[in-house]
Design a protein that fits this description.
The chain is mostly helical. The chain contains two helices and no strands. The chain has a domain of about 30 residues.
Amino acid sequence: MILPYSSDRNDNREDFDAWRQRLLDETSRFIEWGLAHPEVVQQIPNAPVGKANFSTRARTLFWSVLFSSHYGPAED
């Protein structure tokens, strides 16, 4: 996010703090929602670093499901 320009450094700091708080609040809300609804959360596959070799098909399927999902916390 590009913060509005201000010649007063304190104004910029307040803008940054407000933006940071909104980001933290949104992240917190998403995590709480995900924990309350594990049945609709896309699990991220994991494997030891350097040992995993997911097929192109598996990678494509994972990302297509993740990016096409309409589930998520409701907007305020």
